[in-house]
Amino acid sequence: MILMIDPILRIENLYKSFGALKATDDVSLDLRKGEIHALIGPNGAGKSTLISQIAGSLKPDFGKIFLDAEDITHLSVAARAVKGLGRCFQVSSLAMPLSVRRNVMIASQAITGSSFRFWKAVESDQALIAAADEASNMVGLLDRADVPVSNLSHGERRQLEVGCALALKPKLLLLDEPMAGLGAGGSERLTVLLESLKSEIPILLIEHDMDAVFRLADRISVLVYGQMLAQGTADQIRHNPLVREAYLGSIDSDSPDLDSLNSESLNTDSSDRSPLNLGATKGVND
Ligand code: ADP
Ligand code: MG
Fold this sequence. Notes:
Elements: E1 9-18, E2 21-31, E3 36-40, H1 47-55, E4 62-67, E5 70-71, H2 77-82, E6 85-87, H3 100-110, H4 118-124, H5 126-138, H6 154-166, E7 172-176, H7 184-197, E8 203-206, H8 210-216, E9 219-224, E10 227-233, H9 234-238, H10 241-248
Parallel strand pairs: 3-8, 3-9, 6-7, 7-8
Antiparallel strand pairs: 1-2, 1-4, 4-5, 9-10
Bound molecules: adenosine-5'-diphosphate and magnesium ion.
């Protein structure tokens, strides 16, 4: 048997119900070093619920979560972040009047509990400034370090969110629909950025933009009604009959490959638990 390298993140038989609704129904997956693992599925499939359980803001009913072989199932959000679980900050948590650099510095301090020496440190800590600039550089924003966030484009703010997460030197990144609301140029830049990061920081990526998913993902997990429908390489998922059925509602041997589908052939109902929209249009945030 081939020896497998320990995954950086492992989820074992996770369950989470909201009343009668099984939002996470026996889900297992792992994230390996050097990879982007995409988690896809229709709206309401339980993708964000899964990410919240990994990040620690939602407690699973049953199952275990391991970070670097350590059981973190019962740790707080902050404890997980300190151990290297990187979750992206939302745009709404960025301080608009402050510069890119200041935002990254605040993010890197927020989690370490050093709020008492916070302002002094932000003003004078050279190590902190250097770390912030390194993170800004990784997301292509170093030349914008002194620019107030309010002057950044939407796409640049997304890059900054990733930068804020990177400032904590995470072992991995959890990203929930980072392309949502971005135009073609912004999505392209973010795609290139994520591609450049993955060798250093593996990424668990929820994304509706199937172009980005098939370009970026080394492996894909498909979640439907809280259950794992399929897992495999991008190629295996693209040709998996169960996945095609979940996306299309029927299996048709003449249907085109998943990646060549266009939105007209798809149900674009955005209500909960709608069929998966493979042709997710860029710029639409559901
Ligand atoms: P996805 O991210 O795949 O679109 P979610 O994880 O947001 O799906 O939601 C999965 C299901 O769980 C949905 O039916 C949603 O309405 C439900 N749900 C999510 N969070 C809660 C909550 N806090 N309370 C009750 N139901 C929830
Ligand atoms: Mg979601």
